[in-house]
Structures are given as structure tokens and as C-alpha cells.
Amino acid sequence: MRILSRFCTALLLAAVCSAQTQTIWFCPIIPATWNNFIGSVDYLDLFAPGAPWTSASSRIQIFKMYTQMLFPSVPGSFSDGTLRQIFAYLNSRHIALAVEFGPLTPSAPPGCGAGVEGFGGQTALIIATRIQQLGGNLQYIALDEPFSFGSLYSGPNACHWSAQLIAADALSNVAQIRTVFPNVIVGDIEPVPNVAGSPDWLSQYTAWIDAWRAAAGAPFAFFHFDIDWTANWRPSVESLRQALVQRGIPFGIIYNGWLSDITDASWIEDSENHYAAWEAQGGTLPDHVIFQSWYPHPQHVLPESDPTAFTYLIDSYFRQRTSLSLTIASSQASGSLLDSQAGPIASAPIAVTAQATSGPGTASNYVLNGTVPPAITQAVIQTCVNECDEVGTTDINVYSFQYAGSGGKTTLNFANGLTGWVVDGNGTASVQPSSDANGKSVQISATAAQRTFVNSVPLTVIPGDSYTLTIQARVSPSSAGSGYFALVFLGATGTEVSRATLQFVPTTLALGTAQTASDGIYELSITPLDPGNYQLQAAYSGTGTLWPAFASGIEIGPSIQLNGIVNAADFKSEPLPPDTWFSIFGQNLGSAAHSTTANTFTLGGAGVSVCGTPAAISYNSGPVITNGATGWQLNALTPDAVADHSSCTVVVTVDGQASPPVTVSIAGGILELFNFTSAAGSLPVITHGDYSLVGPASAGFVPAQAGETVIAWGTGDCAIPTVTVSGQAATVIFSGRVEAGLCQLNFRVPSGSGGEDQLRISTSPGVYTLSVARD
């Protein structure tokens, strides 16, 4: 039987690497007095002869430095000799020099901007002159978040300047640099999202971008996103990206790890996870990719062969891209894993999970693992709603927290309601003790405009200790992106030093893991879920040479494609007589199986009804992937009970889920011969008396002889028809049903026939070819 190849079911979310040209930036940091001695201790080894980052250095176009490295009066800034070495190395390899520059001028102390990030414009001319004098060529300036800190920031020495004032002040200092480097290219960096700065941050950003263009007479040359990876960042990134596209401004993403990472390995791993979370899950490739750290890790940039070194991260980004597809049936997930050349990837593990998309959610355990930062001995457990760079509706129940480290376990719960807990005194969300079958809890409900937090009392932690924080909670799908659970680490004065977070998301159900076959295809039987209520995801974790890949889809039920019910003999869409084999093409029609008995009414989990009457099924293809597309085929028999109908609805049911009904015409008096594909094209199934196939000798068959009785095989109405061969009447010896849905038609080939003759059967709409030997 034929399997159609025109199906649109796969959701391809890990895009094959396009031909888009990207600009790659690199910005490590060196331990120094000005940054509390954090960063990569071998930073300067990058610029030594034969430094072991040949591949990574060939991939970057721009090397970015911090202004503190360049301004001579900053403690720990580079010496003239060191800068000459750096600039000479970059020049020799045609790597452009960039500086991350705070362009705003602080007012005289104690005025606004003093000690605030983004305010360092008064150093512009000194830095530019020193670069020039020491052999450097400053080609790019990346403004250090001037709008966020010049306008939205509300801490000590805040300015709250307008976008226009910020643009004017920044441009005056950029003008100083341009007296030395007149062709320097200017772009901006800002945090994304920036709900802490303003709930309306996106519209304020676009106003700032437009204000710069108006003041400068040209748009930013680029706009880099400093993403808060702890937030629900994806919608914000996409919204700002679209705003930049409308303005013709290239966008870039800074790929880095977490402040809380305490090893180089974990920082590199988190950085890889971050770039994969955007680019392998449907995000548009950034125009600029920035590998940057201002965190304690990684502590080594070299060698690039070391998976924990910063330069390794650059090389890992250039691994071969992969693509993963996912097709979902009620009891099966399937798809294929391909490399960037559309070649199959074999023996790869594919993990399939599910998340609810509607409903209240179920109580589950959420786990946060990490390491306590050095010198930290106290921490607070926090539930934060709509005031930690997250915004959305919230509907959650929190039952308990368990902190486990080398010092033992500490369990906190709500057995005594909110006694012993600190609730935001200015919060507007509903925070109420509650109780259900899972135990006592606190229930938090909020609109997107309401906020709150709930803090524990401080608990004792051990510096450098590995910990596991387990949270039992119910998180509704609608709460995703509205907040997070956090472990907040406190310094000696009781103020926050850093935090580790776990976003509100509905629980993830592990459905299983499958391995790809030699053709890259995987199949996994899964527990049926409520159709339309779950988002399923397939994930490939990648290797040292291959990118990870993801694909997702909604759990859906069976469906019949448009014009997907055809006569099984010739795959034509036409009225079906009773007791006729027909084929159904569609989606999610069960698993592969062949019937072994004549009266099989459920096959591969699928059943078929015609006018409400069960139909026998002989074949279920299961999911078949052809040219990257997936489809199903069922072969079923129209019941005799439909004889009195002129039309009927056909419904496929799989594991209790019914497809939308499709109406087909019912009519008697139609016979179609089965067809098969040969070297001579499509031929009718006609046999000699010994049941060998009739066909042209050129295709390896034996033609019929004039006067020979041959047998034609078909399905439909088996009443005796009129048969002609090239216009000459053939004598019909026999016509009848020999088994369910199978007609046998014996006729004698008339004399005078020869060659590829036209065979016409009065009950068949088609015209067939009969090969007859010439005399």
C-alpha cells in the first residue's frame, strides 16, 4: 500500500544553522583591585605568542575591554607595556578593539550619578588618547547601560534623567572620543527584561532608542541584551528584538553563566544552556554574539581544549547545529534528529517530557541545587511574586521547603499558618493559609498588577557547601513567568549578597527516553494525556561536536486530512460501495500493525466507524516519516450496513479520542482494480492463471496472450461488468467476491489484441493498461 509524503505535522524548533553572518565578541575579565580580584587569572596569556586559542581567536571579530583596565588612575589598571602587548596582538590578527564605556557625566558630589554604573563620561578623552598613544585602534564603543542607570535606576545618587537628556550627555562624551577616533562605531547595552527599573520598561527603551537617533542623527549601530536569565526573559527578548528590527538595528545577546556559579565548569555549562535556550528553541539568531563575564568565573580562559576554559565556550558555540522534529499521537511520540546537512544522527538519546498548559496544576516537588558562596553562613528562602523582574498572574500553593546540606536537613512549612514567616508589608497580592489533601500551605493569588514576597527566617548554611532545596508546591500553568522561589544568601550585615532562583513553572512530567535509529528516527510509546492540555517537548542534549536540539508540540488527538479518504485500490477520492477497502490518511492514527484475522476492528489502538458501524481494519502504518514529514495510513472496509446510505461520516478513534468526522459519498456499481508500481509505471493487478503478474516484458513480466483467460483483482461492486480490450469485447468468465472486500474478475483476452492495450471495465471509472503479446 502507498504511504503519502505530503504531511505537515512536525514542529521543527532547533533550526539548522543559516547562512546569516554573525559578529562574535569576546570580553573576559582579569582579577584586579578595581573588581575585587575576580575573573580569569590567565587573561594576559591570551596575548602571548602561540597562545592556545587558535580556533577561538579566528572566530571572533571584536575583543572588548572594560574602561577600568584602561584608565590609568584606577587601581589595578593595565600598564603601558601590557596595553601595547594587547593592542599589538589584536592588530596582528585583525581583531577589532571595543570598549564598554559608561558615557554619562556624574554631577559634582554628592550629585546624581556618583558611583553609579553607566557614569564615567568624564574619562572619555583620557581613555581614547591612551589607546591611541599605545598603538590601539578603538573601533567600537558599547555604552554601559546608560538609560537603565541614568533614567530607571532608583538607588543612591539616582538621576532619573529623560531619554533626551541622557542622549545629549552621552553624545557630548562620545564626541570627545571621536576627536581621537572619528570613525568609532557606537551601540548600546541594556538589561532585559528590566521590570525592576520600570514595569513599562519596553516602551521606555524604544523611546530611548528613538531619542538617541534623533540626537545623533543615526540609530545605534547595535543593541546588546544583558539578559536576566532568572526571569521569564524569552517574551521580553523577542519583543525588544522586533522593536529593533523595525528600526533597522542589529541585536546581540550576551551569553554568560550565573553569579552563583562557583566552578568554571558550571559557569561554562550554564552559558551553553543559555545560548541553546534561545537559539535551539526557536529564537532568531542574534546579529551579534557576545561571550562576556563580569563574574568570579571562569577563572581560566585557556587552553581552548579545556572544557572549563572561557575560550572553549566560543568553540562550543560553533559546533555543528542539529534539528529535531516531534510528532505526537495519543500514545506515541516520534520524530527525527538531523545534522546541519540533513543527515541522520543515530544512537542519540531523545528525552520526551510534558507540561500542563491549562488547569490548576498538580502538587509536585521542585528542586534547586547549588553551592553556597564563600564566606556565606546565612540564607533566607523566599517566594517572590511580581516584584523580581517577573510579571504575570499567580495561582500557587506552597506546602514546604526542605534545605539539605552537609550539616543536615532543615524543613520549613506552614503547619502554623504564616507564623514564623515574613510577608511583604507593602504587598497587594492575596497571601492566605490554606489546607487540602496535600497538607497545609500558603496560597498566593495575584493579578499582574499585584505583588508580594514571603520570606523565611534566616537559616544557617555552610560556606562552599553543596545544597539541595526541595520545594513542594502547586503551580498553575497560568502562573508561569510571574515569580520564582529563591535562596537568598546574606552577608555579615544581613543584606543580600546573591540569590539562586527557580522560576514558577508547571511541573514537568518525564514520559520516557528513546534512542534514534540509523535513519535518525525515534519512536516512544507514551501515556495518553488529555488532548490540548499538555505541551510536549523532545530534547537532545548534544555532544562535544553537536548542538543540543529541542522540539515541542501540543498533545493532540487523531485527525483525517483533507481529501484523506480514498479508494484503497487506486487512491482516488470517489464514492465508496459497501464492502470496499478504503484508505484513510491523517494524523495520530495509532501505532503500526497488520491484522491477522478477517474481523479486526481495533488495530494499533485505532478503530474506524462508518455511519456509526465499526469497520474492519487490515493495516495501520503507524507514524511514517518521509522527507522529514510524518503521516499515518489506515486501510479499512466499508461495512455492508451502509448500503442504504448515500453518504456517511467516517470517524477514527484512538485510545478513546475521536477524530472530527469526515463525510464520504456511498454508492454501488463501482469497481476499482488494485494497482502496483513497476518499472513501466503504475499497472493494474492482473494475473495469469498461475497468479503471476501480467505486464510488459520490458519490465520483467510476462504479457497476456490473445485468447488467454486472465484474472483482474479489485475492490468494490463485484457484479458482472462489461469488459473491452482496445475496443473489442472480452468474454467474462467469472465475477464475484472471493473474500471480504476482494473482487475477482476472470475474462478472456479477445483475439486481435496486442501491445499495451486499453482495458475498460463498465463499472470502473478508470481506464487501465493490459499488456498483450503480439502475434
Please give a structural write-up.
The protein has 775 residues and is mainly β. The protein is 14% helix and 38% strand. It contains 10 helices and 50 strands. The strands form 9 sheets. It has an 8-stranded parallel β-barrel, surrounded by 6 helices. Strand 49 and strand 50 (767-772) form a beta hairpin. Helix 9 (264-279) runs parallel beside helix 10. The two termini are 35 Å apart. Residues 1-20 have low confidence and may be disordered.
Q: Which SSEs are present, and which pair or pack?
A:
Layout: E1 23-27, H1 54-59, E2 62-66, H2 67-70, H3 80-92, E3 96-101, H4 124-133, E4 138-144, H5 146-152, H6 163-178, E5 185-192, H7 201-216, E6 223-227, H8 233-246, E7 251-255, H9 264-279, E8 288-292, H10 310-317, E9 322-324, E10 327-328, E11 332-339, E12 349-356, E13 363-371, E14 378-385, E15 394-405, E16 408-413, E17 422-423, E18 430-436, E19 439-446, E20 452-455, E21 459-460, E22 466-475, E23 483-490, E24 496-503, E25 508-515, E26 521-525, E27 534-540, E28 549-554, E29 559-567, E30 581-587, E31 593-594, E32 602-603, E33 606-610, E34 613-615, E35 617-620, E36 624-626, E37 629-637, E38 647-654, E39 657-658, E40 662-665, E41 671-673, E42 675-678, E43 681-684, E44 686-687, E45 709-716, E46 723-725, E47 728-739, E48 742-748, E49 755-761, E50 767-772
Parallel strand pairs: 1-2, 1-8, 2-3, 3-4, 4-5, 5-6, 6-7, 7-8
Antiparallel strand pairs: 9-11, 10-11, 11-26, 12-25, 12-27, 13-22, 14-20, 14-21, 14-23, 15-16, 15-19, 15-22, 17-20, 18-19, 23-24, 27-28, 29-30, 30-37, 31-35, 32-33, 33-34, 33-38, 35-37, 36-37, 38-39, 38-40, 41-45, 42-43, 44-45, 45-48, 46-47, 46-49, 47-48, 49-50
Helix pairs in contact: 4-6, 6-7, 9-10
